[in-house]
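Please decode residue identities from the backbone states below.
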């Protein structure tokens, strides 16, 4: 009886370990295939914007969602600890002013642009 319980436990443990590994690969593959249209190209531009007013991860999410809605924005990262928003974009479709406006419209103040 103990031998059977040990076997079941080991099979269960192996299933969980293999399942997690497989799941992680699927997530990674989905991210890659889902972001193909969002690939940052050499012709894209990047901007770093110093903001004020971000206090939490919710603020980060708000800014990211507003900026991502702009046609031509490829990637957005926001950090409430440093109050920095970084974005890469296609200059043929949008510009820094549009990104600044989205941040301001979200309720945050743009302090400087690098």
């Amino acid at each position: 009886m103990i031998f059977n319980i040990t076997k079941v436990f080991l099979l269960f443990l192996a299933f969980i370990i293999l399942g997690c590994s497989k799941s992680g690969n699927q997530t990674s593959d989905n991210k890659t295939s889902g972001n193909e249209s969002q690939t940052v190209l050499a012709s894209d531009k990047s901007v770093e914007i110093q903001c004020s007013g971000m206090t939490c991860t919710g603020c980060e999410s708000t800014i990211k969602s507003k900026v991502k809605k702009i046609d031509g924005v490829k990637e957005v990262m926001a950090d409430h600890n440093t109050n920095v928003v970084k974005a890469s974009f296609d200059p043929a479709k949008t510009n820094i002013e549009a990104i600044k406006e989205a941040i301001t419209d979200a309720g945050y103040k743009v302090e400087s642009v690098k």
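Observation: Residues 2-34 form the longest helix (33 residues).
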